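We modelled the chain as a single entity of 113 amino acids. Its sequence is:
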Amino acid sequence: MKRELVYLIYILKKQHRLIAFISLAAHNRKGCEIAWKYMQDNWNKTEKIYDEHSRDLIHLVENVPCHFVNEQRANEVRNFYANHPNPIFEGTIGKVLQQINIRQLVLQHHENS
């Protein structure tokens, strides 16, 4: 799956890359892991492709960690963006961390019922 992602990154137009990347992350936990790792490893390139102030980049920040469900992953997201600050992400990162927390609580509720 990782090889296919790299292939898609190079052949697709910018707006189609965004859709493919977010779809990979949303598909399942493994896709989410691959998309998150790729985004971390290629952050500078990703910022250049999408422009550091673009709505497309905000969509990536919002949607890539969509299957994260624990405090460890929330801390990873928090630390990554603390090391790559961008004022336009402040509200978005808060929203992402809140969603991770909600998913964690829902998962715990289902495990306990």
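As a brief sanity check on the tokenised model: Residues 2-112 form one domain. Residues 90-112 form the longest helix (23 residues).
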